[in-house]
Amino acid sequence: MTSISTEAAISINGLCKTYQGGKRALDGVTFDVPRGQIFGLLGPNGAGKSTLINILAGLVNKTEGSASIWGFDIDAHPRNAKASIGIVNQEILFDPFFTPVETLEIQAGLYGVPKKDRRSLDLLRAVHLEDKANAYARTLSGGMKRRLMVAKAMVHSPPVLVLDEPTAGVDIELRQQLWAYVRELNAGGVTVVLTTHYLEEAEQLCDRIAIINHGRLIANEPTRDLVGRAQEKVVAVTVDRDLTAAPEAPCFEKIVLKGARVLEITYSKARVNAGEVLAAVQAAGVGIVDVSTREPDLEDVFLSLTRSTAD
């Protein structure tokens, strides 16, 4: 399939979606997914990720803006755009009375793939379902069904694959199998777009990450740069007496008194270490009874980004 003019796998420009009743799910979103990458699309629930994916899939009509897949505008060239993308939704959707091989054959037929060019057994082998080729799909485990959905999305050999929360509720072993296959597809030239709640997953897999919050794009940068923003760390300090106010110190980014005896202190790893933070608490004349810390996670990245965009 030849592309038209663009080098981006997916190009989104000024995309808006307002639902009936006035809810604005997407608000002027613009970004490109570079070809050949594994691209993370992250955001909290309700941020607009699924709306964006459903627009690309042709399931939801946009209100404003434009989108193209592999150079094909979704309005001007809808058939070519759809042929260029495979989408694995969060929900597991297929007929439980067909076997996996029948499921793939039917899907290939819907995409107009000639019988001689179909690769149903190869796809089942790739997702470790070859031994279940002729079992009824309803007898498959949840993990197997999810893998079947990935194979189903690849029947027409699209250059772009979108995985919407593919590992939600999936055990670690299956998650690793799924990622091994995704890396294999990517190594073979498939551009992958991944939505996930798990920052560690995105960190390990994605070359670049975009974050959507309240329908707006608030970050779009290489993964390493984005993770570097998660410099804030939180330490909970239990003290030896009741406090009426939290002590202040220049090394605290933020301090909150939780109950009478627990101080929740946010500090920047780039500026200070935990020892300096604890020393500052003691310097305020407070004894320390217990300490617990947590590493920054996706929520912290969201918070730091949404704070900076609000400033």
From TrEMBL:
Molecular function as annotated in GO: ATP binding
Keyword Transport annotated: yes
Any coiled-coil regions, as ranges: none
One Pfam family here: ABC_tran
Leader peptide range in chain numbering: none
The keyword Transcription appears for this protein: no
Domain ABC transporter, first and last residues per copy: 10-239
Keywords per UniProt: ATP-binding, Nucleotide-binding, Transport
Entry-linked InterPro entries: AAA+_ATPase (IPR003593), ABC_transporter-like_ATP-bd (IPR003439), ABC_transporter-like_CS (IPR017871), ABC_transporter_ATP-binding (IPR050763), P-loop_NTPase (IPR027417)
Protein known as: ABC transporter ATP-binding protein
UniProt source species: Sphingomonas longa
